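Throughout this chapter, every protein is written as a compact record of paired, labelled lines. An example of such a record is reproduced below:
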Amino acid sequence: MSSDAVRPGSDAVRTDAQDAAPTRPPEEILLGFARALRAAGVAVTADRERTFLEAVAALGLEDQVGVYHAGRATLCGSPADLERYDLVFHAWFSGQRAGMKNRPPLQQVTSQAGLNDSAGAANSAQDDPDTVAAQASSTEILRHRDVATLDRRDREELVRMFAALRPRAPRRRAHRHTRARRGQVDARRTLRSILRRMGEPGEVTWRRRADRPRRVVLLIDVSGSMSAYADALIRLAHTYCAAGVPTEVFTLGTRLTHVTRPLHQRDPDRAIVAAGRAIPDWSGGTRLAEGVKVFLDRWGRRGMARGAVVVVFSDGWERDQPEALGEQVRRLRAVAHRVVWVNPHRGRAGYEPVQGGIMAVLPHVDDFVAGHSMAAFQELTEVVARA
């Protein structure tokens, strides 16, 4: 497919984005395009969607050439995605492709079936505008918004979204075996069965190694720099406790606070209030290195962190020396199964891990992920579960 066929800004291409803007918010248009691109087989993640929205916000939706190149730079992960991107962009924004006589409206999305590699061409499927709008609904937009920017009404909707979140515990192999229909031959049990029958041959018994849930430890920074995210992070911790995942929760500020017990209340609002009362240093200073050290000395090395998945929620701002934080995270990694570091600023466009604390801990963490939106929290639960 030639680049002239989809070159934005050419005379043969007409954008309908400005016509659609009065009736449909720009976020719905852009998120609808990202969802159509994902349906076409391009791996569009939540981080890429957010970066795309921020890039277009800086350029303006009326700049069709800028929107085109912003999408190529943020939504495509490999050269193999470019052809599909061109087809979907052309069908979504201009409704015209070279050699095509019909001009479908903005709401028409190129069908996924017509975008496979063997066909090499795009077939169109006429969608109802209400259906397209439902796909890019306000709930979907809210999932990708930074929780620090939400108003009271959006936060109430976010609480309902947390109630629908279903985190899963990571699994580990147990030391003991259990009976099974297939697996390894249980020689001892089979031999004892033969001896009970005076040497007569009998049924062969089998066994397999069982698996058990692995503990999850959440260390949540509640200092002043993290205060805008602390409420959502505590709610996420309560969701883990309510889901039956073996979870231990601590908060980090000027001191370490164990808040697992109050978060085990059934009602989420009461649990959040009880946890808030138990935290004496909410929105205070930050002593991450000291907090991690106390956790390791009092709980971690005794067994709570041993073999567990430890998730640290923090932006990395540290009052002490960053090298001290790096040393404590190195000690933590030595006893934990995996260490996941969640930074809310990781989901912002153009973010670079330049803070001294982040640079000190990165060599000792297994996953460095975003934690700024509901979509990021959903991805975090998958990272923890597969660990």
Notes: Residues 1-22, 95-136 have pLDDT under 50 and may be disordered.
